[in-house]
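WARN no homologs supplied; continuing
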Amino acid sequence: MRISTVTMFEQSMSSMNRQQGEFLKVGQQMATGRRVVNPSDDPQAASRAVRVSQAQAVNQQYTDARISARNALSQQESILNSVSDAVVSAKTLMIQAASGTLTDADRASTASTLRGIYETVVGQANATDGNGRYLFGGYQDSSEPFVRNPDGSVNYVGDGNTRQQRIDASRLLDVADSGEAIFRSVDSGAGYVAQADDGNSGNITFKGPNIVDVGDPDYGNAFTIDFTVAGPNTTYSINGGAAQPYGDGAPLIFGGLSLTLAGEPANGDSITVDRAVNMNTDLFRSFEKALAVLENPAATDAEKAALQNTVSTVMREFDNSLDNVLTTRASVGARLNEVDILDTVAGNRELNYEQTLSDLVDLDYVEAISEYTLRQVGLQAAQKSFVDIKSLSLFDYL
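OK structure emitted
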């Protein structure tokens, strides 16, 4: 079989081109540090690398979401800390106001301080997250959730929803509690609150109620104590029951509760005792009740009794509101801890992704250098062979 000169030249050129291509391919791998530079280098590895890169991008998105969630929760935790301090200060002022030695001027001074605390709490309740979104308005976060009514009271115009954010593939986290849950609610485990009727004209006051027997069959019910004065006889009835003689300073035991009464009621006076969740749960309303009674002079015995009863009721309401705020703050702290844990998990996941991606596409330099040297030798051999082949000619022997 005779091989033409053209065939020899074409095969030699093809061999050199192939060797040169392989040589340049290894050089490109060394220059980029990647074994898979083009998908054709290893289609299966390239396909898996794309999926790993996508997983990395998703992981980074959740990491960014956790940063946003942490900022919102940290700001909420700071505000709740300030609110709890404010409620404690208000409770201290109410204890001072309960003293019978204060004059009207003293109570007015106390009311002035209390109003400052009240305004501070309102301002905290209308705090924003720095981007113009109100923290405690639920989904209604474009305007102030707590607004002033014409009579000076505060009304909530947000909704009861809790804003959420997805911080991991399987975790949707509450990042902002609603103002309804924080400032207008009490814990379901809160006890009883007593409140004197606004129309009372006697000077009866109360202390308590205190829980003495949670096993009483009537425990958990609401109670209304009505007073009847007929001549020299004063009686009371509970929830319309049988009339019983009233004794000044004697504790009343009913429904697993104890309520101590003092003073003389007027005919038709009443006191309501109910679970805290069924009474006033609005922190701002508690402030307003306290301010109303402290800013007005208490001259008559009935006015002084109303002052004492309102202070007693408000102190119990402040306690319940404080417990609710602290419970919410504890929940926020738990959520911050969860964000930290998920960050740690995501960091480990990112390391695994990087290791997997490295195994798929990164270059083994020891192997690559050996391959580079081998391809270099192959290219040089192909070039030398071509030089020898092209010099073969019969004309050299004529």
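The chain is about 55% helix and 15% strand.
OK
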